[in-house]
Amino acid sequence: MPAWAQEAAEAVAEVAEEVPTIDTGDTAWMLISTVLVLAMIVPGLALFYGGLVRTKNMLSVLTHVLAVACVAMLVWVSWGYSLAFTEAGPFVGNLSNAFLANVNADSISGTIPEYVFVSFQMTFAAITCALVVGSLAERVKFTSLMIFAVIWLTIVYFPLAHMVWSVGGFFFEKGALDFAGGTVVHINAGVSGLVGCLILGKRIGYLKEALPPHSLTMTLIGTGLLWVGWFGFNSRLGARCRARPRASR
Hints:
Blueprint: H1 3-18, H2 24-50, H3 58-85, E1 107-109, E2 112-113, H4 114-136, H5 142-165, H6 170-173, H7 182-200, H8 216-233, E3 247-248
Antiparallel strand pairs: 1-2, 1-3
Helix pairs in contact: 2-3, 2-4, 2-8, 3-4, 3-5, 4-5, 4-7, 5-7
């Protein structure tokens, strides 16, 4: 092959690689992963926490986990996705994509539709906030918890998600690898839960009366669902969906 023809073929190949296209396998797996993470929240996390508290608080914990997850999802599509994944600065995004503005059926994130990426990341925001519920169980009112969820997501979760997962984010640009939420989800929720415990103090009757768990059977079932759902949590190890500048087909 003449040199000029080889150069032309290489140039065409480079252009083809730069054009974003949807990978049906990646998309299907990410949709399955989104469902798996949803199952980790309700019923997985709800049963896990609900089985550990006293019988009289079982219903409240189930309600708290479900309600917090719902609030987190609403906040995510309203302004959370925009703050987390727009390239405004190293610490937090902007509101250019608030209420999913500029996101449409043709938008692509990596090799999957952007709507799929939004949905998958929405479940991460929901379960991270729901994880904190276990640290506040039996000691917080429903209304107070909902207010806390909105504020915490806005000033803690979204900025950290941007710094770790978004192009231009502070930790992202330093080469941070956080495919399964080790920083954004687990450390974040753990530290937040610890701070919540210290602020609220001990449960009434702690070390003074018996506090038997409602049902360790439910806790085991919840643990199993969390375990299975972990395949969804680790999905980005097998799908090319890291945050990157959006493009349209």
